[in-house]
Amino acid sequence: MKPVSIRDLNTAAPVTDSHAGECATYRLAPSYRDTVTLDGKSNPAISRKVYYPRVKKLPDGSYFLVHMDMRLGGSIYASHSADLRHFTPRVALLAGHDVLRDGEEDRFVYATPDAAVLPNGDLLVVCQWRYSKGYSRDAKNCGLMTLRSRDGGKTFEKEKVVYVGRCWEPYMLVLSSGEVQIYFSHTAPKFYEDPSLLADSLIKTSSGSALIRSFDNGETWMPDVKDAPYAAHRVSQSYICTTSGGTKCFTDQMATAVELGNGDIAFSCESDCGDYRFRVTAAVSHDNWARPLGIDEAGPADKMFAFTKGAGPYIAHFPSGETLLSFNCEGRQTILYGDEHGKNYRVDEPLTTFGGRWGYWGSLTVDTPHCVIAAYPNIRELRGADNKLLYIDNDLMLARLYLNHRIDACELTPDFVGNTDALFVGAASQAQCAIRAAHDRDRFYLRVDRLDRYLTAGDGIELKLRIGRKVYTLGANLGGKVWYALNDAPNADFGATAETTLCGELDVWAGNDNGAVTIFSLPREIFGRADIAEIDVVMQNDDDGAFTEETLGGWQKIRIV
User: Fold this and answer.
1) Radius of gyration of the chain (CA)
2) What is the pTM of this model?
3) Which of 102, 191, 299, 427 has its CA 20 to 30 A from that of 408?
4) Is the distance from CB of 550 to CB of 559 less than 8 angstroms?
5) Rounded to a whole number, what is the distance in angstroms from the first to the last CA of the chain?
């Protein structure tokens, strides 16, 4: 009997909204083993400068990384990886260059890239383009362009301009219908109407979020906006102020969106509330943004405006119903848990990734129905008294975070074959555990698959099973010690057993497959008529004296089926 990795579990075909109504308790468990930092000093995938990283999973299971190399844009780069650990050297997809604009020397730059795999299998990259000097002078000196690859990002066709107008931060969403949407920060119409708002507005601009759509795999877009007044399909605007000249100014920018199981679109954006007070706003469209907002119209109706402090949000959604919302808050990537409606984000339970290291403009990518990839730059900039950039050395941090939610206990099979529903613990050290459940007519079983490169006698697992008002504790370590408790009574005898199989030697560093399997069992009768139990897990690990202990972070349900 060999331990099974969490990567090889939770493999059943996802059922849309299978956990609807149960989104109040789920959590993400980062994997220490699946967390990597690409060193900016030496890694050719990022070469010291990485901003705005976006990771996309390709149809062959590999990964495509796209990012920009300057805080406000310069060039767009891409690289590939098979394992999210080793990347090819980055290649410039679009390189900033000097130009003449209307007889004046200027620089043509690219910024804020995103990408998506289209229904026909093509990979499409979108980014902002602009003239560095001309951007603040005329709305026409900026826009969006796309690049298409028909071979998984190995080669790209010539770029195409798909929107003209002052803008930022495009984001691409592919709907189940095949429709492709590009959301972006929509600053051009107001700037065209009143350029003085750059100085007169409380927020020195007026934004809002808009989209363009494609129904032919990104070949053509509607509305086709190439000239004044530069208005796309407005989807979100929040009123902020009115200038002295009478121009109404709005916010809502850096939009991202996902399609929910019921066909609604959950949306997130950053709202600039003035005086550098950035907040996160969330909204839901129930009709795929059927009607565009007017230029001075706030909306949409179903919106949670500025409900939490943060900037640069990014939204993700699991097929089972759970919605995630990440953003940078005081330089730390923060994730909130939401529900199947794209609402009820648990602001009192934020998850901070990567040890709280400083950066901004990260992203989330759903890797599997039970795993999300977090990407975040660790940014180190040294600036002089005049704010001139003196030194930069950025790292790129990547991590897999596994979804812990209700699992099912199926009928027992030999070696748990076919039973892949699992919970995960493994954020604090290289040791990790996956927990599964099963039953037969007489007994209930809990299997713990432990992967651990350094096994010690003190390495242990403790499971707490709550059924009604009773809490059953089952524990075992690799030294052979077993313990049980019922509520607060230690050494309780409720007919439980424990059997551990070692897959490696104690006190010896070994490979990734080193570990142990522990199977607990207890009488089925303790459930009575109940078919639901709740479980929490405490994993102990001792890596040569470096003792750690971690839990699921809260109770999760087990359903007997």
Assistant:
1) 26
2) 0.96
3) 427
4) no
5) 25
Strands in 39-103 per DSSP E:
51-57, 63-68, 76-81, 91-94, 97-101
Pairing of β 407-411 and β 482-486: unpaired
Q: Buried (b) or exposed (e) across 9-41, using 16+ Cβ within 10 A?
A: bbeeeeeebbbbebbebbbbbbbebbbbebebe
Structure-token pair, residue 13? 């075909």
In contact, 453 and 541? CB cutoff 8 Å: no
What pLDDT does residue 181 have?
Answer: 98
Residue 72 to residue 378: CA distance in whole angstroms: 16
Q: 158 phi and psi, to 5 degrees?
A: -60, 140
Residue ranges with strand state E in 189-342: 209-214, 233-236, 238-242, 248-251, 253-259, 265-272, 278-285, 303-309, 311-317, 323-329, 332-338
Residue 288 structure tokens: 């795929």
Task: Give the model's pLDDT for residue 246.
Answer: 93
In this structure, what DSSP letter does residue 13 have? P
Contacts of 347 (CB under 8 A, 6+ apart): 307, 308, 336
Rounded CA-CA distance 203/207 in Å is 9
pLDDT digits (tens, 9 = 90+) for 244-293: 999 999 999 999 999 999 999 999 999 999 878 999 999 999 999 999 99
Q: Judge contact between 350 and 335, C-beta under 8 A.
A: yes
Which residues of the chain fall short of a pLDDT of 70? Answer: none
Fold of 407-560: Immunoglobulin-like (2.60.40)
What are the boundaries of each domain within the chain?
407-560
- CA–CA dist 203, 312 (Å, integer): 16
CB atoms within 10 A of CB 209: 32
pLDDT of residue 42: 85
Q: What is the pLDDT of residue 511?
A: 87
Six-digit token string for 202? 């409380």
- Please report, for residues 136, 290, 300, 313, the alpha-carbon distance to residue 264 in angstroms, rounded to integers and kept in the order given: 36, 12, 13, 19
Measured CA to CA in angstroms, residue 529 lies from 22, 493, 522, 524, 526 at distances of: 21, 21, 16, 10, 9
Token pair in block for residue 241: 């102020």
Non-local (6+) Cβ contacts of 70 within 8 A are 49, 51, 109, 111
